[in-house]
Amino acid sequence: MTVRPSEDLPAAFARLGGEQDGRVWSELWDDLCHQGAVYDDSFPALPHLAAIATGRAPGAPLDAVLMAGLIASAADAERTARYAGELAALLPVARRLLDAAVNDAPAFVYLLQCVLAFEGERDWSASRLEGLFEQEYEIECPACASDLTIAFGPDGAFCADGDPLTGDPATAPLLPADPHALDPLPARLHAAAKRAGHEDVARGLTYLFGRAACPSCATAFAVPDQVLRTY
Description:
Layout: H1 9-14, H2 21-32, H3 46-53, H4 61-73, H5 77-82, H6 84-100, H7 105-119, H8 131-134, E1 136-140, E2 147-153, E3 156-161, E4 171-173, H9 184-195, H10 199-208, E5 211-213, E6 220-222, H11 223-230
Antiparallel strand pairs: 1-2, 2-3, 3-4, 5-6
């Protein structure tokens, strides 16, 4: 019988530090966070990931922080308290890596989520910022339940009824939030993106925290409310 990494975490993480690190990390991701899911077996990995991130064990700090951030984003109050020491150790490493992610928008967004997760934020740390580099979100209209796409890429910023890549969907323009009037958390995220030179991410944040109207029924709604309900 093949032993899964989560069944012997010390042995699984002890394999890091050699030429096969890519394969080891792939196996760890597949077992502990398969397709972005977090399981009960995922949380005991946090001490090992913190040791790697802080240089007390072999392995890549970036990989450790990204996995730990995803796991931490799913932590309830009990697990947050149980692993408080590990989360506190991971936070400055994530901040340092975030400051260095100046040419990679996806890495910047992933690390932004990690920072929030280690700080204890449980809404926007849970993969919901990833639409910022994909430049779209798929949501539902809160009134008529139509499938909507919020898009803010090179083809413009709009709310489309259905998939804008198929057919000729009805659209309505998005109303971005004023960057100077954002609530504290989105204002902080916007400032971090601007400071790192990620202008597309900063622009996307104004749409993510802005407003839209359903092209089908004309109901106006706050985009972040629907993103939180959908993702």
